[in-house]
C-alpha cells in the first residue's frame, strides 16, 4: 500500500520480537517487506510499531522514561504511579533514521541493557547526571526552560490510566480463573514498568508496558577481562527501593485489621499514658506513643485511580463487558465461554426476539468463535474467548440500536443487559428469602414471572416498573 501511494514521507518501523527482553532482537526497517528478513514470523511473532522519529532530546541525546505503576487491585480498580522514575539515555547523538544509520542501536534504542556496552556510557554516583538518571532531574531541566511540568505530568497520568483500563478486562478473566469468587484469597498486586517517550512537542507516547520490570539496584563492572563485580547504582537504589518499600506498605494485609482496631487501641493507649504519667515513666511513654511508620519517608506512590475515575469511567465499556462474560462462563477456572453460556447470556438479558432467533444466536457464536480460534492465540480450551465475546457484543449492539453512534450503541446495550440481570438477581434473592423464612404468605416464584405484594416488596415492584419504562424507551429509540 505504501509503495502504491508512494507518499513523500515514509515512516520508519521498529520491530520487537515477541517474548524478547532487554532490547534483544530489536531492529529498525524502512520497508515493511524487510521484516521477512528477520526469519520465520510463524515461529517467533513480532510487534511492529511506527518509530517516533522526532523525540525530545537532551544534550542531543534521545532518552526514554521508565515509570513504575502499582496495580493494587482489579476490583475495585486501584492504580498508583511513582512520583519519580528513571530516564535512560542513548550514548550517541541522535539523528533521524536513514538507511545508513538504521543499524546504530546506541543512537536509536534507549535500552539500558544495550547502551551499557557502549564506550560512551556514563556511570555516575550522582542521580542527576550520567546515562541513567532520575526523571525528576529531567523535569527540573525542562522546568528551567519554561515547560509546564504540571501539564506534562497530567498527560502522563492520563496515558497510564487509559493503558491500565485497556488491560484490566483480560486480567480479570485470568484472575477469576485462579481466585475462586466469594472466597478469601491472597491479595494480588502487580508492579508494572511503563516505558514512555516524550516527543519534541512534549506529548508522552507509550512504547511498551513491562509486566516484570527489573528491580536490580546494581550493575556489573568489568575489572579485568572476564572478571566482573556488582557495583551499586545510586539512581536505581533511590527509585526502586522506594517503589518496593511503599508497595509493601500499601499492600500490608494487616493494615485493615489495624484500622478496625484503631479506636480500641487509642482508648487503651490513653489509659496507659495516664498510668505512665502518674508513675513518671517517660521512656515507656515515648515507646507507646510512637507511630510504627513515623520514621519512614512519605509515600513515593500517588493514587491516580479511583481518584480521577470520573474523567475516565466512560472508557470502561469493555471492562463492563468482561463482567458479563465472566458471569456466564459457568465452570470456574475456565477462560472461554461455551455455546450454552452464550445462549444463557442472550436469554437472561432478553436479547432474542422474532427478528433474532436462538438459531441466529448459535450462528453468530459459531462464526465469531471459529474465526478467533483459527488465529491460534490460545488452543488450550475450546470456546469463545473474551475478544470474540466483545466482537459479538458489538454485533448485537449494532443490530439493536441502528440509529445511534457505535459508542452509544454499545453503552445502551450494556445498560440494557445490566438492568435485566439486576432484576433477575433481585427476583432470585426474594425467592430464596421466601423459601428460607417459610413465611405465612410465601413468595410464589414461577418461571415466567414473580408475584409480589405491594406492601412487602414495594422497592422491587418500583424497580420492575422502572425496568419496563427502560425497555419501552430503548425499544422506541431502536
What does this structure look like?
- This protein has 478 residues and is an alpha+beta fold.
- 44% of the residues lie in helices and 17% in strands.
- It contains 16 helices and 15 strands.
- The protein has helices at 2-5, 105-108, 112-115, 135-144, 149-178, 234-250, 255-260, 262-279, 282-289, 309-312, 317-327, 339-348, 358-374, 386-400, 406-437, 458-477; strands at 13-17, 27-29, 46-50, 57-58, 61-73, 78-82, 86-89, 132-134, 190-198, 204-210, 218-224, 227-232, 301-305, 444-446, 449-451.
- Strands 4, 5, 6, 7, 8, 9, 10 and 13 form an 8-stranded antiparallel β-sheet that branches. The protein has a 3-stranded antiparallel β-sheet with strand order 2-1-3, with no helix packed on it. A two-stranded antiparallel ribbon has the order 11-12.
- Helix 11 crosses helix 14 and helix 11 (317-327) packs parallel to helix 15.
- The longest helix is centred in the last third of the chain and has 32 residues, at 406-437.
- It starts with a helix and ends with a helix.
Q: How is this structure best summarized?
A:
The chain is 44% helix and 17% strand. By secondary structure, the protein is an alpha+beta fold. The longest helix has 32 residues, at 406-437.
Which SSEs are present, and which pair or pack?
Blueprint: H1 2-5, E1 13-17, E2 27-29, E3 46-50, E4 57-58, E5 61-73, E6 78-82, E7 86-89, H2 105-108, H3 112-115, E8 132-134, H4 135-144, H5 149-178, E9 190-198, E10 204-210, E11 218-224, E12 227-232, H6 234-250, H7 255-260, H8 262-279, H9 282-289, E13 301-305, H10 309-312, H11 317-327, H12 339-348, H13 358-374, H14 386-400, H15 406-437, E14 444-446, E15 449-451, H16 458-477
Antiparallel strand pairs: 1-2, 1-3, 4-5, 5-6, 5-7, 5-9, 6-13, 7-8, 9-10, 11-12, 14-15
Helix pairs in contact: 5-11, 8-9, 11-14, 11-15, 12-13, 13-14, 14-15, 15-16
Amino acid at each position: 500500500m505504501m509503495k502504491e501511494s508512494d507518499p513523500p514521507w515514509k515512516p520508519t518501523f521498529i520491530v520487537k520480537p515477541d517474548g524478547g527482553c532487554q532490547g534483544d532482537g530489536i531492529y529498525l526497517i524502512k520497508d515493511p517487506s524487510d521484516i521477512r528478513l528477520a526469519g520465520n514470523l510463524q515461529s517467533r511473532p513480532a510487534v511492529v510499531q511506527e518509530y517516533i522519529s522526532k523525540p525530545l532530546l537532551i544534550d542531543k541525546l534521545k532518552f526514554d522514561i521508565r515509570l513504575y505503576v502499582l496495580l493494587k487491585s482489579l476490583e475495585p480498580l486501584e492504580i498508583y504511579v511513582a512520583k519519580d522514575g528513571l530516564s535512560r539515555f542513548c550514548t550517541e547523538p541522535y539523528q533521524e533514521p536513514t538507511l545508513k544509520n538504521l543499524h546504530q542501536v546506541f543512537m536509536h534504542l534507549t535500552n539500558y541493557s544495550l547502551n551499557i556496552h557502549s564506550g560512551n556510557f556514563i556511570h555516575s554516583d550522582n542521580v542527576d547526571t550520567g546515562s541513567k538518571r532520575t526523571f525528576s532531574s529531567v523535569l527540573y531541566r525542562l522546568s528551567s526552560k519554561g515547560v509546564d511540568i504540571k501539564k506534562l505530568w497530567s498527560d502522563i497520568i492520563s496515558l497510564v490510566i487509559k493503558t491500565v483500563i485497556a488491560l484490566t478486562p483480560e486480567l480479570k478473566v485470568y484472575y477469576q480463573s485462579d481466585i475462586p469468587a466469594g472466597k478469601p484469597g491472597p491479595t494480588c498486586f502487580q508492579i508494572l514498568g511503563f516505558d514512555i517517550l516524550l516527543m519534541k512537542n512534549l506529548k508522552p507516547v507509550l512504547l511498551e508496558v513491562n509486566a516484570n520490570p527489573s528491580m536490580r539496584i546494581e550493575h556489573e563492572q568489568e575489572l579485568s577481562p572476564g572478571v566482573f563485580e556488582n557495583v551499586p547504582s545510586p539512581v536505581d537504589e533511590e527509585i526502586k527501593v522506594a517503589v518496593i518499600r511503599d508497595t509493601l506498605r500499601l499492600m500490608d494485609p494487616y493494615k485493615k485489621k489495624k484500622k478496625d482496631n484503631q479506636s480500641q487501641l487509642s482508648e487503651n493507649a490513653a489509659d496507659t499514658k495516664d498510668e505512665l504519667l502518674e508513675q513518671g515513666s517517660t521512656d515507656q511513654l515515648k515507646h507507646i506513643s510512637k507511630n510504627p511508620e513515623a520514621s519512614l519517608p512519605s509515600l513515593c506512590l500517588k493514587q491516580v485511580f479511583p481518584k480521577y475515575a470520573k474523567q475516565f469511567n466512560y472508557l470502561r465499556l469493555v471492562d463492563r463487558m468482561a463482567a458479563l462474560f465472566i458471569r456466564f462462563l459457568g465452570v470456574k477456572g475456565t477462560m472461554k465461554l461455551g455455546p450454552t453460556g452464550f445462549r444463557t447470556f442472550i436469554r437472561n438479558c432478553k436479547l432474542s426476539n422474532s427478528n433474532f432467533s436462538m438459531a441466529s444466536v448459535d450462528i453468530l457464536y459459531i462464526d465469531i468463535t471459529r474465526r478467533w480460534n483459527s488465529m491460534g492465540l490460545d488452543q488450550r480450551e475450546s470456546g469463545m474467548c473474551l475478544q470474540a465475546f466483545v466482537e459479538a457484543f458489538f454485533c448485537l449492539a449494532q443490530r439493536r440500536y441502528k440509529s445511534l453512534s457505535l459508542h452509544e450503541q454499545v453503552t445502551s446495550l450494556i445498560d440494557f443487559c445490566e438492568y435485566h440481570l439486576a432484576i433477575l438477581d433481585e427476583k432470585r434473592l426474594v425467592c430464596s428469602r421466601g423459601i428460607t423464612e417459610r413465611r405465612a404468605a410465601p413468595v410464589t416464584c414461577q418461571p415466567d414471572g414473580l408475584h409480589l405484594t405491594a406492601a412487602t416488596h414495594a422497592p422491587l415492584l418500583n424497580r420492575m416498573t422502572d425496568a419496563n419504562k427502560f425497555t419501552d424507551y430503548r425499544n422506541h429509540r431502536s
